[in-house]
Design a protein that fits this description.
alpha+beta
């Protein structure tokens, strides 16, 4: 964390490096007391390629994993689904995808950032 002092005045009697450090420390404490902490979790963009007949099951599985589908396109008998999914929810996804698509589904992931974790994840 970096804090920048944007305004202030110095006086020959009461201005010292220690006085500015103390003022900064007190300001930081006050800011931390007034703030709210939020637990963040990593989120990845998942691109899933599946046969057309497996789209419904894959969409349901992504929704159960707290995924937010952002797009879907059809290509000659296959569908490409793009979704943002919390990384923690993807453990075991390869096995589930293979079983839902009889081994014909594939997926790739790409980190996209962080999002607030639900309170049930933060507590447990």
């Amino acid at each position: 964390m970096r804090v920048t002092l944007t305004d202030g005045a110095t006086h020959s009697k009461d201005s010292s490096e220690m006085a500015f450090r103390t003022a900064g420390r007190l300001a930081l404490r006050e800011a931390l007391r007034a703030s709210a902490m939020v637990l963040l979790e990593p989120v990845v963009e998942v691109t899933v390629t599946v046969p057309d007949d497996a789209v419904g099951g894959v969409l349901g599985d992504l929704a159960a994993r707290r995924g937010r589908v952002s797009g879907s396109t059809a290509r000659s008998g296959t569908a490409v689904i793009t979704a943002a999914v919390p990384l923690a929810e993807l453990f075991g996804y390869a096995t589930r995808l293979r079983s839902r698509t009889q081994g014909r589904g594939t997926f790739t992931t790409r980190p996209t950032g962080y999002a607030p974790a639900p309170s049930s994840v933060a507590a447990g």
